[in-house]
Specification:
- The complex is a heterodimer of chains A (792) and B (242).
- Chain A has 792 residues and is of the alpha+beta class.
- Chain A has four domains: 1-55 and 260-401, no CATH class; 56-258, no CATH class; 434-473 and 645-792, no CATH class; 500-621, no CATH class.
- In chain A, α2 (16-53) runs antiparallel to α10 (363-389), α7 (255-296) packs antiparallel against α14 (435-473) and α14 crosses α21.
- The radius of gyration of chain A is 33 Å and the shape is elongated.
- The two termini of chain A are 32 Å apart.
- Chain B has a single domain (11-239), classed as 3-Layer(aba) Sandwich (Rossmann fold), CATH 3.40.50.300.
- Helices cover 28% and strands 29% of the residues of chain B.
- In chain B, α3 packs across α4 and α5 packs parallel to α6 (180-197).
- The longest helix of chain B has 18 residues, at 180-197.
- Chain B is globular, with a radius of gyration of 17 Å.
- Mean pLDDT of chain B is 90; it is low at 1-7.
- Classes of the chains: A alpha+beta (792), B alpha/beta (242).
- At the A-B interface, α1, α8 and α11 of A face α1, α2 and α3 of B.
């Protein structure tokens, strides 16, 4: 080993403590990159493989009822590679151990080769359909697990107005329901209250009265046709118009796919932002550390140069510190990142159901991880080294001129200055004479604070969103979906059900809404006059009454359509005669989930050319008699879906408590690493630089805690300034995050609450206190007798 | 004792009208003013002067660790005053050995390794072991500077300077931090190296007693050479006293 290499290793070993704090920050940065990026890759490749192997559809067309001959015509369209027809129906499930009725989605599947169809299903348990029995289902695996159902068990459902009992022939997964949501508007998977049931195709057609017909067409495109899918769907829409097209959905707008893809995209952003923050802080701290190291080794550098070492040799030697710190941080970060990625994926496994996650070793990511950690680390080392290297050997060998000892600007205000006492004077002078060091401290604290603040704010945002959606907008206790559109008679029937205090009808109609070039197909929700159970709200939570005419749009929809209050939109119901009418935008409301659009019930009924129709009823339920209601709903022949607001809300809350809790913990630890790591590092540098001062104080009779108090004062000034800066920074991060995650399915409200600010301060302060404790230990440990005698 | 009379003098280095001005903010401080000097092979020169007189600055010009503001430093036909960093590095590496008042050893390296710092630089160095042998420190080779006395540290520094087989040995107050007995031994080593290996040595000191061991004494005052005289009665180092 060359002698300078030996010197490097010994010095790294001797300052292991200080370097370790930087290594940890780099490790966290690199591990977050490896973890998030690996998870992103794993999700992405698992998604690709799953979609490919099980032929995930490129488009869906839902119709009221179309003959199979029409399906054949769709198959013949240019760009279409294959189509299949299915019968899909939502039904009410009756599980003996669950009081509430549960919504199930019945999907027809061939008896044999159901894994070879479009959206093929992969059997997890059981043997699949038998040849002899008709009443068999293959159950979604998530639902089966949630309710402890096994192949061979029985399950009851209301099918075509009759209660039927089915044997579970197996459990399965499908690429259509990787993320288990009913559709747009749901945003957390709910395997407990929503299940998928595959039934034999022949049986479904017969039982549901679909002989020679279907109500859903799924298709695959030929390679290269993806770009024109919208044109193709328009064409199919026109072609199948006589059969009542309810919706056409390209893959890009399929709910499960969108959630999965949005998540993968979000991970990509996180994989860039988080490591950048950590590695930047590491570079900052390393810069201070190396500037000081280079200054302390000024004479050595000068001597080496005097001996005949070239600038290149000297700089290579000193950059070695950065390289070693980068490599150690990189290696440990990669190791940690890999194991963390398994943890993250197991977390994702609760949300995204794949037959298997494709874990691969991503050597390229490790290389990139290593390169960025070394690059940031070397970048942090270079400045300090160059500063000393620029001196001639003769200058470098002279001891550094004494630190500037002049007055700092605050001393221009004698009254103020004198009022502060000498401890503050020491702290302030030290801070103002080392501006780079002070700024690094402030910036690191600000970053740590902003990470805590933004995480807590996002946590609050979710609670706000749930509260907004399930306490203010949606106020019904339960909703019953009808099999068909019914007259108001259905309302009166419902009102008479046991336990129903009050009932309100709604009508959902799929419509095309167009404003010039901007258009969307979505369900317009019609509410009765004087509606009480759905209250579209503005941002300040004030409810908006649906006017007798015109549409009420959620702000996101208004943005997409580029529409404002008073603008006239073209509205075409996707049913019946499809007559296009001009409707005004009556008002714009807030909405964080999906694209809400409301209208008056009579107004919309008139537009679709019917007397007031109803396809779902919202209920206010007397809690004491809820069970009676649930039992009755299980027997209702016309009910197709049932949801309980408390369940939906509870599911979202429990999902968030779990996942946000984990990420909150992680982020606070990460922020702690930054705050603690940088603060301790800067303090240790300060202690080394001021050993003689500390020793002098100790000789004078000061207790270590009294000396530490001076450092505490100094750190508190840095902490306070950093914390103040962290508020706008954290707020900006949340706003940026809200913009990054602003999708048609979901928006994140930005809310600021006082407790969040207080908690941010307390948590950050906790980390500073921890650092202060180490400072105290160091001061107490210092051999001050030696320090006071040491030669400068 | 002086052998300059028995060999044909050959100039190792020639300094012509060298000035060095330091700028400290608005103020210009002349450290050297138009100095002329010739150093001949095998000479042992002592540069004497009070602190701040410019003697260290002059040594830096000779050693190629700094450049003059004006004037020339001629070495083997090249002017070091206009040499680039690479050429100066090459010059220091191949031709010059340095000894400093505070030894400037690398604290994290042993005595042996401190010598290696120099031997790894050149093609045909002494074995570090031999270099330490020459300063009678073989038994301390594995000690770190903090475990050595001042005199021992300075001997390591001499071994480090010697190990490169330099043409010129420059010693900047080599006994400035040492007591009389240790100083005598360090000076004795220098004198022996000069005598036995014909090594050209330039030593700077503010101690008026030390120049007695040199062939030539150059006295410098306020950046100018006030006197340059041949020492007719070179004193053995062990007889130096102050």
């Amino acid at each position: 080993m060359r002698v300078l290499t030996r010197k490097l290793w010994r010095e790294i070993f001797n300052s292991a403590g200080v370097l370790a704090t930087v290594v940890v920050i780099i490790m966290v940065g690199t591990s977050s990159f490896i973890c998030v990026k690996s998870a992103q890759r794993i999700l992405e490749t698992s998604q690709e493989a799953y979609y490919r192997d099980y032929r995930f559809a490129d488009f869906w067309v839902n119709v009221k009822k179309a003959p199979l001959s029409a399906v054949k015509r769709v198959a013949d369209l240019p760009g279409v590679a294959a189509v299949e027809s299915r019968v899909v129906f939502d039904v009410i499930l009756d599980l003996p151990h669950v009081v509430e009725p549960i919504t199930g989605r019945l999907i027809s599947a061939p008896t044999r080769g159901f894994d070879e169809t479009i959206n093929g299903i992969s059997l997890v348990r059981g043997s699949g359909f038998s040849d002899d029995r008709n009443e068999e289902v293959i159950l979604g695996e998530g639902f089966a697990q949630e309710h402890d159902l096994h192949p061979g068990d029985r399950i009851n459902l209301i099918l075509n107005r009759k209660r039927e009992s089915f044997i579970i022939a197996g459990t399965a997964l499908s690429p259509e329901y990787v993320y288990m949501v009913r559709g747009e508007g749901d945003f957390t998977p709910d395997a407990e209250h929503f299940g998928i049931l595959y039934v034999k195709e022949a049986y479904a057609r017969k039982a549901l009265d679909f002989d020679g017909a279907c109500n859903e067409i799924v298709g695959r495109l030929v390679p290269g046709a993806q770009a024109d899918v919208d044109l193709l769907l328009d064409r199919i829409d026109r072609m199948l118009q006589p059969f009542g097209v309810l919706s056409t959905t390209p893959r890009s707008r399929q709910a499960s796919h969108r959630f999965l893809s949005d998540e993968i995209r979000g991970l990509g952003i996180t994989a860039t932002v988080m490591p950048t923050i950590f590695l930047a802080v590491a570079a900052l701290v390393l810069n201070i550390l190396m500037t000081r190291l280079a200054e302390r080794q000024r004479t050595t550098m000068g001597t080496l140069k005097a001996l005949g070492y070239s600038n290149r040799q000297v700089i290579t030697h000193f950059l070695g510190f950065g390289v070693v710190v980068g490599i150690v941080g990189g290696l440990t970060g990669i190791g940690l990142g890999i194991s963390m990625s398994y943890g993250l994926i197991s977390l994702y496994a609760d949300f995204f159901k794949f037959p298997q996650f494709l874990f691969t070793t991503y050597a390229d990511l490790w290389i990139v991880g290593m390169i960025i950690s070394v690059v940031f680390s070397v970048a942090g080392t270079i400045k300090g080294t160059l500063a000393v290297l620029r001196l001639t050997p003769a200058e470098a060998m002279r001891p550094k001129p004494p630190a500037r000892g002049g007055a700092v600007f605050l001393e221009k205000y004698p009254a103020l200055w004198r009022s502060m006492g000498f401890r503050s004077h020491i702290a302030l002078r030290s801070l103002l004479r080392n501006p780079t060091r002070t700024l690094s401290g402030i910036l690191s604290t600000a970053l740590a604070g902003s990470i805590i603040l933004s995480t807590l704010m996002m946590y609050d945002s979710m609670w706000y969103l749930v509260d907004f959606q399930f306490e203010h907008v949606l106020r019904s206790d339960a909703t019953i979906g009808m099999r068909d559109e019914r007259s108001r008679l259905a309302l009166y029937e419902t009102q008479r059900l046991p336990g129903v205090d009050y009932a309100e009808p709604t009508l959902g109609v799929v419509c095309d809404i167009r404003n010039g070039r901007n258009a969307r197909r979505l369900a317009v929700l019609a509410l009765e006059e004087n509606h009480r159970l759905t209250n579209p709200c503005q941002r300040d939570l004030s409810p908006i009454a649906i006017p007798p005419q015109g549409l009420v749009l959620a702000s996101k929809l208004a943005n997409i359509l580029d529409a404002d209050v008073g603008d006239r939109l073209e509205l075409t119901p996707v049913r019946g005669r499809r007559r296009t009418v001009q409707v005004p935008v009556a008002s714009i409301v807030e909405g964080f989930l999906g694209l809400d659009c409301y209208a008056d019930l009579t107004y919309l009924s008139r537009m679709v050319g019917e007397a007031a129709a109803v396809n779902s009823v919202q209920l206010s339920v007397n809690p004491v008699r809820a069970d009676a209601l649930f039992r009755t709903v299980k027997t209702l022949p016309n009910a197709q879906g049932f949801s309980v607001r408390a369940n939906t809300k509870g599911n979202i809350e429990s999902t968030f408590i779990e996942t946000m809790g984990i990420s909150l913990g992680m982020m606070v630890i990460f922020a702690g690493v930054i705050a603690f790591g940088s603060m301790i590092n800067l303090s240790l540098i300060e202690i080394t630089d001021r050993q003689r001062d500390i020793a002098t104080f100790r000789v004078l009779g000061y207790h270590p805690s009294q000396v530490a108090a001076i450092f505490f004062r100094q750190n508190m000034i840095v902490f306070t300034l950093g914390l103040i800066l962290s508020f706008p920074l954290g707020y900006g991060m949340v706003v940026g995050m809200a913009q990054a995650y602003d999708t048609e399915l979901f928006r994140m409200p930005v809310v600021v609450n006082l407790p969040v600010i207080v908690w941010t301060g307390l948590l950050a302060f906790g980390f500073v206190l921890l650092a202060q404790w180490v400072v105290y230990r160091q001061i107490a440990k210092l051999d001050w007798l030696e320090a006071v005698q040491a030669k400068e | 004792m002086a052998d300059s009379t028995t060999t044909v003098p050959q100039a190792v280095l020639r300094i012509e009208r060298v000035s060095r001005i330091f700028r400290m903010g608005e103020v210009e401080v002349p450290a050297l003013v138009e100095v002329d000097m010739t150093i001949e092979a095998g000479e042992f020169i002592a540069i004497l002067g009070p602190s701040g007189s410019g003697k260290s600055t002059l040594l830096n010009m000779i050693g190629g660790t700094d450049r003059p503001t004006s004037g020339s430093v001629w070495h083997e036909g090249h002017d070091l005053a206009v040499a680039d960093d690479g050429e100066l590095t090459e010059y220091r590496r191949e031709k010059v050995g340095f000894i400093f008042q505070f030894y400037n050893l690398v604290p994290s390296l042993t005595a042996y390794e401190n010598v290696q710092v120099a031997t790894e630089l050149v093609d045909d160095p002494l074995d570090p072991k031999d270099a330490l042998e020459m300063v009678e420190l073989s038994d301390r080779a594995s000690h770190f500077p903090a475990q050595l006395s001042g005199g021992e540290q300075q001997r390591v520094a001499i071994a480090r300077a010697l190990a490169k087989r330099p043409e010129l040995l420059l010693a900047d107050e080599p006994t400035g931090a040492l007591d009389l007995t240790t100083s005598r031994s360090v000076l004795g080593i220098l004198q022996r190296l000069n005598r036995e290996q014909n090594l050209t040595i330039i030593l700077i000191t503010h101690n008026a007693a030390i120049p007695a061991i040199a062939h030539r004494v150059v006295r410098i005052v306020s950046g100018r050479i006030a006197e340059s005289r041949i020492n007719e009665h070179v004193l053995p180092a062990e007889e130096v006293s102050w």
